[in-house]
Amino acid sequence: MAIQLYTLLFALVVALMPAATRAAADAPAPAHADCAAQDPIRLGGLDWESGQITTALLDLLLREGLGCRTEVVPGSVPSLESALIQDDIQIIAEQWVGRSPGIEKAVADKKVAILGDTLTGGAVQGWYVPRYVQEQNPDLKSVDDLARHAHLFPNPEQPGQARFLNCPAGWACETFNTRLLSNTGLSTRYANVHPGTGAALDAEIASAIARREPLLFYYWHPAGLMAKYDLVPITFPDYDARCWPELMNPASRDRCVSGFPVSRLAMAVSASLQEQYPQVVALIRKLQLSPEVLDRLILDMTENRRDGLAQARLFLQQRPELWTPWLPAEAAQRVARRLGTSPRFRRPSSMPWPAAWPATRNARWPRPCIPCNRWPTGSTTAWPDSSPVMARASAHSASRCCMGCCCRWSVRWGRCRPGCCWRCWL
């Protein structure tokens, strides 16, 4: 009788163990000690595309990965910077370093800290022409060449004069572009045209390129337009740190000419957050996107009319290989479970590759996977075109996804299991 009872209890425990394991895996993660405070972490709600995406990415990772309570507080840039200095909000997720005297003073007073580099290589800006203009006029390369090529950019409103498309009036870039036109002597040849809004600037550039008309204009990135069109920068002299403040001053009489500075994009955080939330600080220091990825995200967001949160969620679902290194392993797994994706398994260097993966099947994809001997070295966004996996995989051009064998990390079993995987890229 005792033996039968023991056998029954043992069978019951074995039957319940997988369910318990699954329930524990799917249960809401307790808040990390860093985020155990009752007050939520408040992020500034930025209104431009790259700022919306970066803010939403950080917001999702804080909530879903680290268990933090968060709020996004909308406002203008000056009001958000003032709120950050007073610790009414704790994070501005995209700060153009060096452009705000108020933030610079707060950093000197140790009320605010600048952390991380959210964009690899920083934000660039300059004067551009479409690629087809430069190909038809290969000697048009620098600002010194613009005077003798003024005939390429006719101004329909002022016959006989060329046209330069500047920023909207009131923007900081409008000031230094106007000063550069004057200091290079181009203001006598080029009309200084100001679109009414940023959207009007984009629309005018898109319209000219669609008609393959020549156009000289100012632009910057990160921006979706940079991912959509093939643009060539007009070269300027090297950046001059002494000259640039003079170009930013509309009342200056200095005739200097300088190339454009590269702006570091970072996050501005309050001193209290830096002291109280070390794991949040660690995430901020690691969060970084390449210009190509961020430009493509912005383009995808605008063309599909998504908001920043929807675009950030889609990025986290489609590109786990980019964001999983930003978080501790357990936090990355929590984000992956809640967003319906799984972080790609990172093979330790000591783990040998198997001779071949079996041609297994997947419930969502009834066709067999394509056996492959190994994952291509250094592959991050797609298999190389020469790869046998890419050559034979089922490809879907609309979504830019393909199917193949991969090593899937099993949270339940705690190990890598061969299986079928989609690979999608932007």
Q: Can you walk me through this structure?
A:
The chain is of the alpha+beta class and 426 residues long. Helix content is 38%, strand content 17%. The chain is built from 16 helices and 13 strands. The chain has helices at 2-26, 49-65, 77-85, 101-108, 131-136, 172-183, 198-210, 224-228, 243-248, 271-276, 278-286, 291-303, 308-318, 320-323, 329-339, 388-392, and strands at 41-45, 70-74, 91-96, 112-115, 124-130, 162-165, 190-193, 217-221, 231-233, 265-270, 395-396, 401-410, 415-424. Strands 3-10-4 form a three-stranded antiparallel beta sheet, sandwiched between helices. The chain has a three-stranded antiparallel beta sheet with strand order 8-5-9. A three-stranded antiparallel beta sheet has the order 11-12-13, with no helix packed on it. Helix 2 packs across helix 13 and helix 12 (291-303) packs across helix 13 (308-318). The protein is globular, with a radius of gyration of 27 Å. The N and C termini lie far apart (64 Å). The model is unreliable at 5-31, 343-403, 409-415 and 422-426 (pLDDT under 50).
- Using the CA coordinates, give the radius of gyration: 27 Å
What strand order characterises the main sheet? 3-10-4
User: How many distinct helices?
Assistant: 16
Structural class: alpha+beta
Task: Give the SSE string.
Answer: HEHEHEHEEHEHEHEHEHEHHHHHHHEEE
What's the mean pLDDT score?
Answer: 79
Q: Regarding quaternary structure, how should these chains be classified?
A: single chain
Low-confidence stretches: 5-31, 343-403, 409-415, 422-426
Report how far apart the termini are: 64 Å
Beta-strand share of residues? 15-25%
**Helical proportion, percent range:** 25-40%
Total strand segments: 13
Shape category: globular
The largest β sheet comes out as: 3 strands, antiparallel
